[in-house]
Amino acid sequence: MMRIVLLIATICLLPMLPAQTQTRIMPGTPAPKPPEDQKRVAPGTPAPKDEGQKPGALKPDEGDFVIQTQVQVVLVPTTVTDKKGNTVNGLKPQDFVLLDNEKAQQINRDVTFLPLSMVVCIQRSSNVDMVLPKIKQMGNVMHDLLIGQDGEAAIIGFDHRVEVLQPFTNDAEKINAAVEKLKPGSRTSRLNDSIQTAAHMLRVKKDRRKTILLVSETMDRASEASVKEVATELQLYNIDVYTLNISRIITRFGEKPGIPRPDPFPPGARPSPGIASSDPTTQSQMSGAPGYGIDFVPAIEEIFTAAKAIFVKNPAEVYTKFTGGREYSFMSQKDLENSIAAIGSEIRSQYILSYSPNNKIEGGFHKIQVTVNRPGLKVRTRPGYWMAGVPN
User: Fold this and answer.
1) What are phi and psi of 77, to 5 degrees?
2) What is the mean pLDDT of residues 255-274?
3) Which whole-number Å values give the CA distances from 220 to 163, 255, 317, 362, in the listed order?
4) Is 252 helix (H, G, I), strand (E, B) or coil?
């Protein structure tokens, strides 16, 4: 009886015992690990660093991110001629002095030869119908004088459409067949869009000279892309632009008359012209001369800094001068062939100077000046490039 009473008393007292006495550990069972805050640190072990207490450190919920910048390499196609206009070959990088915003730059390399990748953009609007027969004969000439054995070319035709008539090829017959496909279309001329399409085709080309040859009028009609957008892509992918400008004298004769519209002024109410201001734009409108004059930098700065896309009367001139290319014009078949030969000769004789700007922190337009340490030589190159400020 006494044993039964003691057993009942022991069962009743169990809940009152400390917690650690309630767990019985079987022989051979590993001891449980203490909580993280109760771990014993061995003598001599350095205390763990508290990363969360670093001054200025981001907390996990603040979204850590890393800003990465790439060093921009600027390519500067440079043509050197003597007093007679003949190209000068054999110059070395140490013969050139290159300034970026009047700061001397270290020329990294001079590539005298790179295989050519060219996209030829040809206008096929209805108003250039009289010129198309001459353009159709340039296929074989273009392959022999421009592209060469190691080069390649693609053909784009544009009016209100931008159509790739021939992807990149070195086959002279395919190039000639693509040019012969040209037929007059609508009156629209999407010049900017065709240049942008060509830039997208050239951007994947590595270690090649990338060039666009534009055969068209100098005006754009109804493009979706702005001059600012196209110029940015040309600079980004290091593409040069050359133009064969179709004379407006020829297109005026072949242009069909438009639909007559009523005169908005009643008889006798048309205002007489006043005295025009003598600014470059007005003079160019009156004389037909290029509207940007000698100093092209202000025009480029205005294009890139405008909050909205501004109207550019002559986008072909912008693309050629901004990239270091050149404008040519033609009226006859002989003029066309001579211009193609001149472009090919210039491309093959150009020096491609490259450098990494040491003043990338300066945002805006960077003006480039290239001179040669030899007397009597003339240098022509791109006027500069646009770049946002990049931290060193």
Assistant:
1) -65, 125
2) 53
3) 16, 16, 12, 33
4) helix
- Give the pLDDT confidence score for residue 3 in this predicted structure: 53
Six token digits for residue 116: 């050519």
Q: What is the pLDDT of residues 285-305, one digit of tens each?
A: 433 334 444 567 788 888 888
Decide if 342 contacts 79 (C-beta within 8 A).
no
Q: What is the CA radius of gyration of the chain?
A: 36
Average pLDDT over residues 58-63: 43
Query: pLDDT higher for 246 or 112?
Result: 246
The beta strands (E) that lie in the chain are given as 74-81, 96-100, 103-104, 109-111, 116-123, 152-158, 162-169, 209-216, 239-246, 327-330, 351-355, 364-372, 378-381, 384-387
Q: How many residues appear in the chain?
A: 392
Residue position matching structure tokens 């509207």: 291
- Count CB neighbours of 296 within 10 A: 17
Residues 140, 177: Cα–Cα separation, whole Å: 10
Contact, 363 vs 101, CB < 8 A? no
Please state, in angstroms and rounded to a whole number, the distance separating the CA atoms of residues 168 and 201: 9
- Beta strands 96-100 and 364-372 are antiparallel
- Does residue 163 have a pLDDT over 90? yes
- How far apart CA 349 and CA 81 sit, in angstroms, is 10
The chain-wide mean pLDDT, for the chain, equals 76
Q: Supply 261's token pair.
A: 């519209």
Q: Give me 95's structure tokens.
A: 């013969």
- Residue 378, amino acid: K
Token readout for 207 is: 């270690």
Mean pLDDT of all residues in 310-336: 88
Q: Is the pLDDT of residue 385 over 70?
A: yes
pLDDT in tens, 97-135: 999 999 999 998 766 577 899 999 999 998 888 888 889
Residue 320 and residue 45 in contact, taking contact as beta carbons nearer than 8 Å: no
Tokens standing for 167? 């992807």
> What integer is the mean pLDDT of 269-293?
45
Q: What values do phi and psi take at 277, rounded to 5?
A: -70, 150
Task: Check if the beta carbon of residue 372 is closer than 8 Å to that of residue 344.
Answer: no
Read off the tokens for 275.
């005295």
Write down the pTM of the prediction.
0.70
